[in-house]
Amino acid sequence: MESSELESDILRRVRALLRELDGHHPSCQSDRGMLRWTLHKKIEQNPSTSCVLVRILVKELERAERGDLRHYIIPLLHTLMYTLIQAPCIPDELCARVYDFCKRLLTLPKPFCTIGLDYASRLQVERTAPGTLYQRMVISEQSLWSAPFPYQEKIFIFADPELLPEAICNALVTDTEAAQVSQSPQGCMSFVVTHALQAALGDTCDIHGLRARLQALAPGDVEHWFQQVVAAVEGAASEGGSDRGQHMAQLERIYHGLLGSLPAGNAPQEGLQGTPLPNPNISFHLWTEDEQLWKELVLFLRPLSQSCEPDCLGQELDPTDMQDILAGCGCCEQSRFSVLSTDSGIERDLPAQDEPSAADTEPSRLHRKGGIKKKLSPLDSVSLLQAGSAVPAGKPPGKQPRRSGTAPQPLAPLQRRHTARVMLLGDDRILGRLAQAFHSLRKREARRVFLTRRLNLQFYHIPVLPGHSSAAADAAGPEGLCEVAGYLGRADPWYESNINTLCHMIPKLASMPSSPSRALVTDLFLTDVIAYYARMGTQPVCFQVHSVKVLFRDPAQDPAEDVFLTELLTQVQDSPSHRDLNTTKRKSSLDGPGIDLTVTYRKVVLSDRHKELALALRSTGLLMKAIPAEEAEGLGCLSVTITEIIRINNLAGRSFSAVANRFKAQTIKIGSPEQRPFTVRLDKDSRRTYRDVIGLEVSPCLEPSYCLQKTKTTKFNLHKTEDMGLVKYLPKSLLLPINTFAGVIQ
């Protein structure tokens, strides 16, 4: 294909992307969401056209800037950066144009200025040391050990087997496993070396000879050259203003040392050759246990069988951290921490000690009685965490006393060297489970920080509708089960175009019969879209988590506390006893269906002042929605709809009509004066249904660390209710962040 025809074809594909953003979907609905994928695949097949695509995207960005078409900017910028990361070599003048455009975005509101600043800083590093962005992405995603860049990433895909059909779960397991089979650490290291040398040397790099040489080397030799290339690239990138020519000369010496006796300048002139971008490290999990998310994150930080370099996985566990992790459940109300002792209590199990010094006295010696040492299971969480701990096995995990007069040893600052990208597949019901798990995790962290200072935790959501029919699905409908994804699609058009289209596509791919064509489609498309979302979706949309306190009819039953993300539904409960049933029928014939309720709520007003209102009415049910139907409504309040029963007296007799009473509230309390029970269902999940309920209280869920710190502060200031000290600077509400490509575009 000639250069003019090639440029016209790429321009036509880019314009088709922009038309889809405007709501003009392609004539074939099956092509929705595949335009971006086909464009990148075309560039991967012909890497020499990367510069052509980058030039076209820069022109379209400048045209969107002049025409004030801001909804084009972020999709075009993401497409450009994803191309630039994988491109074999981009001229510096072209990178400079992109860099200048990103700097101009700093004058725009969020999220444009945030994304512009992020990409401008990345481009500055890439211009100083070409190939840095590709190298860092591969090292972190493949967990390759490198001292200059000791960062790791992993994608955790969670799916609820009770919400998705078995065929979809099996297909996703097969595809994610197949994506990892063809990759090896040695191959990924070779990719990093090849891409870095070609990005620096350009057309003079003998890419075929380089690949052949790397394939012939032993794994240890490949790692040796990999470490040299990483050290050279990271050294130049960290210095920033260093001489680019000096960096090129250093990589050229590595290139000639790697090729050995091959003469320089005899590279075949075949143009630039692309280097594949390996699939990220993806693990698929069927969410069957409540604490499964916590366990997988701990395993990611400290594998059970760990034989890496000491600094490869970040800092070792402190003894105080071991106390917290092994203590079990972390409720922020507890003031005393459980401590796990590794001491068996048997004297012969004591470690060998040196002779006591003169300062030691005989009465201080510890005496033991006989006992039986219990052997723990190797799969026990205690053994799991001790395997990755720096605490010796024979010492108790407490703080060691220090002698008076000696200065404490300074602790090295902790860095977040791990990034866990947790991707939820399903509808709003699995996001409700995520809100529960996130609240539990934050309660652990409030008691003793462990994951927060070592792990960068990010959440993603891919909507997938269940293939089978269920009671919740029939009641809510297909669109009603994906309200969160619908809101994210309205807030971010690029999320709507690339992710929401998977809602119906994944079940179709899973239902395809096993064949080479099915493997080709799923492996290339689904895995690539998941990787693209995880790599480029960095802007969170924060959803308010709401807490609910449920009061039961039985006085002996303690109130239940739970959280929800999307909605709470109450319905009148059928009375099981014959006496209550007769009373209900007699009452319904006089006052109509439903039960009497008292509702007290704090109304949402523009002035943000507290305005308490109270209602007494008869109702058959109530629905609270936390996800607004319109983007402009915001995420900070509840939309409440009460089905109120109105009695009408006329000449024909008494009749009843149902009227929807709607209002917005921040907090709400509901009670049944007659002690008539009703049911409460959270997040459209029938498994989270409470029965025999006579009252409930709903309010925005508070951040557990805020609650703990406020409790400590009020102990010394009993008469002051306002926030004081550190509490004023802590986040008050618990927000669940879900990443998209742009966040909420203003």
TrEMBL record:
GO molecular function, one term: 1-phosphatidylinositol-3-kinase regulator activity
BP GO annotations: G protein-coupled receptor signaling pathway
Region (Disordered): 347-372, 389-416
Organism domain of life: Eukaryota
GO CC field: phosphatidylinositol 3-kinase complex, class IB
Annotated PANTHER family: PHOSPHATIDYLINOSITOL 3-KINASE REGULATORY SUBUNIT (PTHR15593), PHOSPHOINOSITIDE 3-KINASE REGULATORY SUBUNIT 6 (PTHR15593:SF1)
Name listed for the protein in its UniProt record: Phosphoinositide-3-kinase regulatory subunit 6
Organism: Cyanistes caeruleus (Eurasian blue tit)
